[in-house]
């Protein structure tokens, strides 16, 4: 019995000594080194950089000249019928853009929140539209005609409009995810653009009064009148705004990748919607690549 106990004690001593000589593997402690997990990267801090890209501009001129036609036909029976005319159409153009950005990130574990300001200059980003419409407006509401007379207002409108976006500043809030050396993010915020906007419309109105009479044989005959120029509603009106500041909103998605230390590259898509100016509404789609440095 004593021999068996002595052998057990010796075996335990040898096993303990052997275990002490084995390498200290973290996996044996229930954990892994950073080398077996994602590479950690600190996105927290201030950063700045520059970018360039491509822009698609879509400008809706459908109601651009309505303000001018309402002025021409003010206090007349033609204001109502002409206010619904969509004389011009939506038009698009493309161009390059370049600019810069500066911002600040705050990081909590894998979540990255940020606030960023950007400036973008657009290279010759100008759209325009022209149109023509002619209509015979018969006895419009509010018009008074003599008995047996039908009033025909032969109305023609010719219009043009243009909008050029020169540059833009934005203030954007960002939400990102720390993926190690890369960070996908989305953003939204406010935008202010600087534009040149113009619109012109020319109206030509003639009044033709057709009379319905009964001849000596009881036949009803329509006598077509001679069109007469209506000078008060036949005129040209124009309006121009240079360097007009227009508010809007912005949203989009992006991706940043750490190249070396604080140096990073980014790719992003940005949607911008401006408030209408002179009844002209402008929408931008911007695609950019950039290079920045986090301090």
Automatic annotation (TrEMBL):
Its main location: membrane. Belongs to the Omp25/RopB family. InterPro entries: Beta-barrel_OMP, OMP-like, OMP/PagP_B-barrel. Residues 7-295 form the Outer membrane protein beta-barrel domain. It comes from Bradyrhizobium xenonodulans. Pfam families: OMP_b-brl. Residues 1-19 form the signal peptide. Keywords: Cell outer membrane, Membrane, Signal. This is Outer membrane beta-barrel protein. It is found in: Cell outer membrane.
């Amino acid at each position: 019995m004593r021999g068996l106990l002595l052998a057990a004690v010796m075996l335990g001593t040898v096993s303990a000594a052997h275990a002490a000589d084995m390498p200290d593997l973290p996996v044996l402690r229930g954990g892994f080194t950073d080398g077996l997990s994602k590479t950690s990267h600190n996105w927290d801090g201030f950063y700045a950089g520059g970018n360039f890209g491509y822009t698609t501009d879509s400008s809706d001129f459908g109601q651009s000249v309505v303000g001018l036609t309402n002025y021409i036909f003010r206090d007349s029976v033609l204001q109502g019928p002409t206010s619904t005319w969509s004389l011009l159409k939506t038009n698009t153009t493309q161009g390059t853009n370049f600019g810069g950005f500066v911002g600040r990130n705050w990081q909590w574990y894998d979540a990255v929140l940020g606030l960023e300001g950007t400036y973008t200059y657009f290279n010759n980003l100008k759209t325009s539209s022209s149109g023509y419409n002619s209509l015979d407006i018969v006895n419009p509401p509010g018009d008074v005609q003599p008995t047996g007379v039908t009033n025909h207002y032969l109305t023609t409108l010719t219009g043009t409009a243009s909008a050029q976006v020169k540059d833009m500043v934005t203030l954007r809030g960002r939400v990102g995810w720390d993926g190690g050396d890369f960070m996908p993010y989305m953003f939204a915020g406010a935008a202010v653009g600087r534009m040149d906007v113009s619109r012109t419309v020319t109206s030509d109105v003639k009044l033709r009064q057709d009379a319905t009479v009964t001849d000596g044989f009881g036949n009803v005959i329509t006598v077509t009148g001679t069109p007469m120029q209506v000078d008060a509603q036949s005129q040209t009106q124009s309006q121009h705004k240079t360097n007009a500041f227009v508010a809007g909103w912005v949203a989009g998605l992006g991706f940043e990748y750490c190249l070396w230390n604080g140096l990073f590259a980014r790719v992003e898509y940005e949607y911008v919607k401006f408030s209408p100016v002179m009844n002209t509404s402008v929408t931008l789609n911007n695609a950019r690549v950039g290079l920045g440095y986090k301090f």
